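Q: What does the assembled structure look like for these inputs?
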Amino acid sequence: MAMLEVRNMTVAFGERKVVDDVSFSLEEGRWLMLIGPNGAGKSTIVNAIAQSVDYTGQVIYRGEDVKRFKPTQLARQIGILSQNHSVGYGFTVEEVVRLGRYSYAPGIFSRHSDADEESVERALELTGIRELLHQSVLTLSGGELQRTFLAQLLAQDPKILILDEPTNHLDLVYQKQTFALIREWLSQSGRAVISVVHDLSLARAYGTDAVLLQKGKSVTVGPISSAFEPGTLDGVYSMDVAGWMRRMLSQWE
Amino acid sequence: MRPESEDKREGASAPSLHKGARRREGFGPGAYLLFTAILIAALVLCVCVGSVSIPLMDTVRVIGAAILKKPIPEISAKSIILSVRLPRVICVALTGASLSIAGAAMQGLLKNPLADGSTLGVSSGASLGAALAIAFGVSLPGLPFAGTMIMAMAFAFLSLILILSLAYRLDYSLSTSTIILIGVIYSMFINSVLSLVITFSGDHLKSITYWTMGSLAGSSYKNALVLLAAMVICASILLFHARELNAFAIGEDNARHIGVNVKRVKLVVMITVSVLIGVCVSIGGTIAFVGLVTPHMVRMITGPNHKRILPASLFGGATFLLLADLVARILFNPIELPIGVVTSFIGALLFVNIFYQTRRGK
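A:
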């Protein structure tokens, strides 16, 4: 059985259909890339799975419609990393990361368990933000903020990670490390990843599956190679994608 | 995902997670003792000082005897202390505490340090509710004061819903300028309706005008009891939601992602805040900016965690309003200023300051 299934998802803002009848499924151990030009509906699909926007169709987690899940139950299965983070107050990095454990013990009387400690420790270690622990999030750079929220997400310990442009604010070193980290995270059984990625080379290098989107509709759904068949991308992006990539690469030769 | 060069630096100097008792996010008993001591000192001071000064020892003896149910010493100031100043001072403290925790909760929920009953127009809405209740003689059988109170609460809640749905429609991120704009427009609208009600209220004119001023002179122990009940229930509910408010203060989307029941928490906090503001307005009228000033000052000391801001706002708000009331009473003695004048004066200055800083921060 698929871990996650999106069936006939449609999201409309007024008259305009931003996502139009999109279906795909995600198996354990797979890394699905949502690719396509700006305005293709990639982030909207992420928001719909996160239950942040209304949609028609179904999102099925291991055979159950997630609309029936309690918010805490959903958070323990599916974790979301947004594209943008704006923080209003000066919480410390530790306070933000610890909130990732909310779904395991909501309420004021909840105590931090050993599992909470372990998850938070591991998340700090993996994202390398331990030295920022007591720093206010208002003083962080874009990349540090991104890693803080990635740490919160890892502390949340979901079964599926959904990442909207995970390396948006990160320089090359951290980009490489983030993708390596996610691949390592994925190597444990019972896990899967969906990510929105603009960099097609990264998508091709790390993805196992892909949904190629154009103006809200899915153009290809399947193994990563299906999106990269000759001519497919060119039509969606209205340009010679492979030619452009090769030209860029030739700068390094 | 640490760069290799940084890996080598990791070691003894890296900050560690707070373990065990050290990791308490709220206050310890010591802090609560200190808060209580400061509050009691302010209470006693406010009972002593006024148009007639009462010696400290007399005040302590009279209040002590009243609390311990012992015979009360027969001194001249006895009735001033027990019938005039004490009920007023208690009402002032409870109003300050209630408005402040309500403000702190709203600022967390909306992730905006300028959100408060008075800036959003919720207090204006509540006073319109109270005015309508007086003008049309709305009351519940057996509970003559409950009509105004329930109307004030209902109008506070409706105002909050209306203002927020307007604000969300204009600007989903609820930026500072949107909040201010909507609050100003809504307050002006409500005030015009209020003027209309006053114009046609005839006999009730005097008691309605009172709601628009904000004063706790002439408060009774019955008022204090109602305020206390509302504060205990509502403050407990808000304290139970401290973690959720932290999540909202980081961002509503983030709160949803980590598993907070966003809709439920929003509704609960909004109802609770409306009840607090409604009760306060129906007893003391609109006392502006208390919910803005206290949490702002508290936040500078305690940081943004609601496990600290909420309880500190309760104590801080009570103390702040007591001192503001004291200033209102003694500044132009024997003329007494409405307490709202003092809080608005301080609040407006602070408002400009926060607004300036948040704009400059962008």
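Chain A touches chain B through 54 residues (CB under 8 Å).
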